[in-house]
Design a protein that fits this description.
It is a single chain. This protein has 394 residues and is mainly α. It contains 17 helices and no strands.
């Protein structure tokens, strides 16, 4: 699968128009230099936090050693009987049905270095964590300005849960990265019409599905959005997106149908689905938890979402003229993903309040960077704000 994906990436790169204009940059202003400096300082502090958290808990979070590194050890220690890691006899909390991108990466690296070491899952977590920051910065800089990109990266690094979960050696930040990459590429596609963006978006979405079950939901909700948003071009865009999805989704489908046990959220017989759907108290519990999480998500003095709304009100929205379709498509995907999470909460066979308490911050984190990308592609850039402030009055 790795070779096939490399070939696909090579095809996409070759298909890109070759032009030196992409690599041309204008002179960096003092404002941009200052914001870049702040972002660099934040990046250094983020790296220190990451290393300190890994030193304090080298085994990672509970899910790291009970799910992801457990599966990696099954595969690495007994390659002939690796299917034991997906045995239905395992305790449901070990989530034997979870996709294997993260454990396979760890097992492969252990084989490459000749032994088990916690530095491998640490390195993988660090790569995905700082790749998220880099992708946020690069994508906003590509679409807007260096100053705006610096602000976007600063806000992302200023969310403590992003760093704490990113240092936990679990799969949520890798999934967040793939979802962000898919959303960015879809945004670029709908703004430019380049099929290569769309193919890469499908690849990223498929890799997200091979990372965590929530990635499968992302694939499901993105398909109708891509089809509807590009309906004027017929089925060609959807086919291009499916082409990018093909390789990782073939692996995911085979794994789910031939190897993985049933998911704990969908018990045999389905449970009392109708009773849960018609129980208004469950909706209230979910809505209350969503509201509380929105207020406390970033652990800022008051809600990060309120602060971002105030900032947008002050500086005003100024999205690029050609960005409307991309913003609508990505916004629709994020909304449907959140609605899908809510539906799963309503139907969960587990204690609802326990399920919300142990997962809702991570589900918010899955969507937050992609929503942040849209936000900073929409608000007025700092270069324009300060340029307007420095203009002489007539």
């Amino acid at each position: 699968i790795q070779v096939a994906m490399l070939v696909l990436l090579l095809i996409v790169v070759i298909a890109q128009p070759q032009t030196s204009e992409v690599f041309k940059t204008s002179e960096v202003s003092r404002l941009q230099a200052a914001l870049l400096g702040l972002a660099l300082i934040a990046l250094i502090f983020s790296a220190l936090v990451f290393f300190n958290l890994n030193k304090a808990r080298p085994q990672g979070a509970f899910d790291a050693w009970s799910i992801w590194n457990r599966a990696a050890r099954f595969i690495y220690r007994d390659t002939e009987n690796w299917r034991a890691t997906v045995s239905p006899e395992l305790y449901w909390g070990n989530h034997a049905d979870y996709p294997l991108l993260i454990p396979l990466n760890v097992a492969w690296a252990w084989q490459a270095v000749g032994g088990e070491t916690q530095r491998v899952p640490m390195a993988q977590s660090g790569l995905f964590l700082f790749a998220c920051i880099g992708l946020m910065f690069a994508s906003v800089a590509y679409q807007r300005t260096l100053g705006q990109a610096s602000l976007a990266a600063l806000v992302l690094m200023g969310v403590p849960v992003f760093l704490t979960i990113g240092s936990g050696l679990i799969s949520d930040i890798p999934l967040t990265y793939y979802m962000l990459a898919a959303c960015v590429l879809l945004y670029f596609y709908f703004n430019t019409g380049r099929p290569s963006w769309l193919m890469l978006a499908g690849l990223m979405a498929g890799l997200g599905a091979w990372t965590k079950n929530e990635g499968l939901l992302f694939v499901v909700v993105s398909l109708p959005v891509v089809a509807l948003a590009s309906r004027k071009d017929g089925l060609i865009p959807l086919r291009t997106y499916l082409l990018g999805l093909a390789i990782p989704m073939a692996v995911v489908i085979y794994f789910k149908l031939a190897l993985a046990p049933a998911n704990d959220l969908f018990p045999a017989g389905g449970g009392d689905v109708l009773g849960k759907i018609t129980d208004p108290s469950r909706y209230w519990i979910v809505l209350k938890a969503l509201g509380m999480q929105a207020l406390s998500f970033a652990a800022w003095p008051f809600s990060i979402f309120i602060q971002l709304a105030i900032y947008a009100f002050i500086v005003r929205l100024a999205p690029p003229r050609d960005a409307r379709q991309g913003m609508q498509a990505v916004g629709a995907i994020l909304l449907l993903q959140m609605l899908g999470y809510c539906a799963i909460y309503i139907l969960t066979p587990h204690d609802l309040e326990w399920q919300l308490g142990t997962t809702i911050n991570r589900l918010f984190l899955h969507l937050f960077p992609s929503a942040l990308f849209l936000y900073f592609c929409s608000v007025t850039v700092p270069e324009q704000i300060f340029a307007a402030a420095e203009m002489p009055k007539s």
